[in-house]
Structures are given as structure tokens and as C-alpha cells.
Amino acid sequence: MNPRACWVFQGDTEWCHTVVTKLLSRYTKKKIVWIAATQHEKFTTLAPKQAQTLLGQETDVIVFDAISDCNPDALGAVSGSIRAGGALIILLSDEEIPSLWQQRFEATLSSASTWVKPGDKLPKLAIKTSPPSKATARYRTEDQRKAVTAIENVALGHRRRPLVLTSDRGRGKSAALGIAAAHLLRAGKQRIVVTGPSLVSVMTVFKHAASMLPSATVTHGCVSWENARLEFIAPDALITEKKVVELLLVDEAAAIPSPMLAVYIKRFSRVVFSTTLHGYEGSGRGFAIRFQQLLAKECPNYQQHRLVEPVRWLVDDPIEKLMFNALLLNANPAAVDDASKITLEMCKIRHINRKALLADSTVLRQLFGLMVSAHYRTRPSDLKILLDHPGISVWIISYQDKIIAGAWSIEEGRLESQLAHDIHAGKRRVKGHLLPQTLIKHAGDMMAAELRYQRVMRIAVLPELQSRGFGAALLYTMAEAYQKQGIDMLGASFGGDVPLINFWRKAGFSPVRLGTKQNDSSGYRSIVMLHSLSQKSYAVLKQAEKRFEQQWPYLLGSLFQQMPTELVLAISAQHTANNNIISTYEQQDVAAFAYAQRDFDSSRYALSLWMPSVMSKLRQMTLEQSQPLVMAILQGRSWQELSQALNVKGKADVLVLLRESVGLLLD
């Protein structure tokens, strides 16, 4: 195989397009793709937002037009499609752009690319692509052969031993899934299911399976061979799948919400989870850390296999190295020794400006690596936001020049009065300003528009130092500094799971809004939590808390009926005692249900009025004691759901537990 190369043409749009078009005129247009916002008359053109359609495909040349703007996510996505001997051609403007990200990007390119500017002698592009050499008759690398064997072992070996298959891009991971699926269909497996972020993202699996089964019938999302099938099922539809699945292949698992993956582990006895570690989406390593913790708990005998050797290009490929450095795809958090001995007193908490980040590549790599490891879908575009957005503030905790915790926030607020009224009326929605818009739209408080906010966009602590107060100390320091700057409110919006909600609550933040839709990245509903920093914001926050508490019981019975009890309790933990007085008749009905044999249907109205008045006491109960109350009274679940969740035979047993729990609260 020949090495891949990167060429940079820097000039105005007309010069760049003319020169590159001329240089490429002698090559086959079929394998040349132009990435630009406007259509090129001679070459296949994709807009940057369509870059993901090249995943799993092979090209000879990618021309990436970054003259007016560079989309880092698109660049990371398309660079992986170029096969050995091919070229990445980047077009840059010769005008000075006031962008710290652009400065860093061009500096990185200058050390690893051939640059051509107006007046330079035009080079001859040496594009010499050929199919990669095969390690065996069937596999491109020995790594791939071992991966196929590991996948087959999941289907043919012991149950409850899932496989985690990881690699960087271009290692033949999806191809291995397809080859193994074909082998297993030939071996007698009748139904293998593939799931992934989309059907397009897993087409490589079907392509390789079909190539191994020449007589197969190939339709959209399905390969049928004799009486056996390899078929695609969307991640959400798979949760309710009733038919037998002999093997489940989860491709790009890092892009699927973790609650769904947790369901797959419990429902299916033979599963392969495959994901990219240093992909353009930057989420693989964070996924691997957290997901493998879950696997270790649920399936301690799970297996791992990592593919290292590239399939599509050479080892130590220059373009792969360039993309890793330019987009920080391989950024890692700092490694610390004797983490158990590190205390907050040994560390330094400080604000760091964006120019200092640009000047210190070690700090930037450690900070971004920390965020990638802690957050789903931390993308290359987040690096651009970090360096270029004027409203971003960055804070770090360092220990011996190593970053052990970090956060960045963005300023919001100070909205005009008319805009606030339009937001409340549903006529307008402005980009950014998430916190004030939440309070205006959902809490109905116009005073919220006048306030200044800092929204924490990212916060992370090294895993070995978590739950030891470092994150809380970072938030406290930020709050103290922002208060002196005249900021009224500190807040955050994040995918609300129990540990995260508890972390923010202990740091003094209160929930004021829970999203009705699940987040595409985390699978959790976004929750907004706020902390007041000024007297005028205190009244706004208290009003928002009050409205959320009043709405919460109704929301549980309508929009959030399926919410786990642990999450309900975490969100309800700060709710104050409700002083609404229920009538003597309702009090008698509740007592009669708990201590006598008054039936549930006759007591339901009284229980629904009484329950909000005792919400604050739920946190004093065990999960087993509070679960019947939450699921039956607040959420109105069916008797079948209740008996399954409470692990009892039927309605009569559920009622016994429910009467006991109501009695405990009354006592």
C-alpha cells in the first residue's frame, strides 16, 4: 500500500477551485468527492452536513473546501474514507481570520502537509490507490480474523458473555461483524439482528455479509439466505422486540443512549457491542469507560477485543496522525500517580483564558481529553467552540501541572423585554440563552430576562478522583468569582440520571425544568438546575422551584409515567413540604385505605390529593417502601406493570405493599 497525503491550497476561492480542478482532471471522477456548501460542476459534491454518508465508503480524493468556514466534524468524518495512496486536499482562505481554532488548525497543517499558494509552481499530485493487500484469502488483517472468531464465540459459546469490540476508524470492525454474521447464518443461525444509530451507519455490515453469501436476497436493511436472516432493527424498536434474537450486533454503540444498551444487556443473552474509540464524534472512549463499568456489574464474564492494524491505510498513516492532532481525536486526560493521596489542598483552582489554552498544547490536550472521557458526543466542533466562542469561560483544577478537573461555562441573559414576551408567547426561540428562555417559557417569569447567567456546558473530574469534592469545589469557586462579576444565576442543563442530579443538588442547585423528550446522546431527559448568586435572582429561582413542585405530581401521572422511581426520588429530593390542607373526608379516605380495607378506586382521588403534601417525606423511606407510592399513586401504572416491577404475583399483593407504604407515611 502507498501512503496517503495531505495537500493544502491557500488563496481566494477562484484560484483554489481553478487550480485543484485542473490538477484532478486526469483522475477518475468517480472516486473524487468535493465537500463544500455549493455544488461543484465537475465533481460529486456533498455539503458538510452530509459528510456522514461517506462513513464505510472508500474514496481516492477528498477536496475539503474550508475557505469560508471549516466544519471540524465533517472533516473528521470524510478523512476516514480515503484509502491508501489517496489524498486529502484542503482549501483555505489567504485572508487573516480572527479565529484561535483556525490558527491552531493551520499551524497543525503546516507541519504535516504540502502547501501551495498563488505564485508557487504547481505540483503533480501522486495519487496511487490500489486495493489493500489481504493478510489471508478472506481477511484483510490478522486482527480482523481474530475479531470474527471472537464474534462467533459469542453466538456459539457460553451465554451471557457479551463482547466489546473496539478500534479506531479504518480497522475493519464493521466488516468483521458482517463476515461473522455470514459465517453464523451458514452454521445454522436463523435470525441475527443488527442495530445502530441509523441503517446508513451499518450498511458496511450488510455489504460484507452479502458478499459472503452470493445466493442471498438483499433488500433494504435485510440479507436473507435460505431460511435465515440478517436484519436491521432501530435501537428504540429493539427494546420491544418479541421475536427470538439469536445474536444481536450493536454497531457504533457509543452513539446509542446508555439506558437502551442497559436494556439490551438484560434482554438478550448473546450481544456484541462495537464502537469506534477515536472517531470524528469523539465519544468512544468516554463510552468505553462508563459502559464497561455497567457490563462488569451485569455480565462479569464479558469479553473484549481491540483491532489495531489499519485495513484501509498504512500503519502510522500521515493523514490519520494529522486528524488526531488537528481535531484532538486522540486527546487523553492526564495520568496521575497515587490518586488516593491527592487532596484539594494540594491542588490549584484557576480560571484560564482561551489564548493561554492555545499557547499551552499540553493543557489543551488534557482538558479536552478529560471532557471526551466524561461526556457523550464531545465532538471536534466542541474544540472550536471552546477556543473561539467569546462568551466561554474555562476553569481547571491542577495537581502538579496536571489537570484533574475542568469546566467551561457560557454567559447568557440580558434579553430585551419584547423578546422575552415573544418567547413566553411561543413566537420566538433564540439561539443560546437556554437558562433565561427556560424560566421565561416554562416558569412564566419575565424578570428572568433581565438577569445575567453563566451556564456550565461541561464539567468533568478524573474518574479516580470523583466523589471526593473536587467537582463541588470547582463549582463553588466559579460561583464565588461570578458573583463578584455581577452574575445573577449559575446553572446547567444535562441528561439527568440519578448520580448527576445528586451531584448538582449537593452543590446547591435546584431543579426547575425536566424535558419531555429524551436526549439523543445520553438517552436521558434534559434537566435544568439553577443556583442563585444575587438577591434579585433568588426570588426568580424560588418562584421557578415552586411552579415546578406544583406541576411535578401532574407531570408524573401524564408525561413521566414510565420514569424509574430512583429518578423520581432524586428530582423530588429538594421539594419542600406541601402545606395544602386536604379535607377531613379525604384524610379519612386515606386512613381507611391504609388501615382498613377501603378499595383503591374509591380512595384514588383522596390519595392523589394527599400525596403531594407528603412528597418531601419520600426521601426518608427505602426504595422498596416508596416505589409502590410513586408507581401506583403518582404515575398511575397498571396492575400488571406494578406486579412485575414490585416482583409480586398480582393486584392483591400490590395492594398489601401499597397499604403498608401509605401507612408508613401517615405514621
SSE order and pairing:
Elements: E1 5-10, H1 13-24, E2 32-35, E3 44-46, E4 59-65, H2 72-79, E5 82-92, H3 100-110, E6 114-116, H4 142-156, E7 163-167, H5 173-186, E8 191-195, H6 203-212, E9 217-219, E10 222-225, E11 228-232, H7 235-238, E12 247-250, H8 258-267, E13 271-276, H9 284-298, E14 303-307, H10 318-327, E15 348-352, H11 354-359, H12 361-374, H13 380-388, E16 392-399, E17 402-413, H14 417-424, H15 434-442, E18 452-461, H16 470-484, E19 489-495, H17 498-506, E20 510-518, E21 525-532, H18 535-558, H19 565-572, H20 584-595, H21 600-610, H22 623-634, H23 639-646, H24 651-666
Parallel strand pairs: 1-5, 1-6, 2-3, 2-4, 4-5, 7-13, 7-14, 8-11, 8-12, 12-13, 18-19
Antiparallel strand pairs: 9-10, 10-11, 15-16, 16-17, 17-18, 19-21, 20-21
Number of helices: 24
Quaternary status: single chain
Unreliably modeled segments: 132-137
Read across the widest sheet, the strand sequence of neighbours is: 9-10-11-8-12-13-7-14
How confident is the prediction overall: mean pLDDT? 91
- C-alpha end-to-end distance: 77 Å
- CATH-defined topology of the largest domain: Aminopeptidase
Helix content: 40-55%
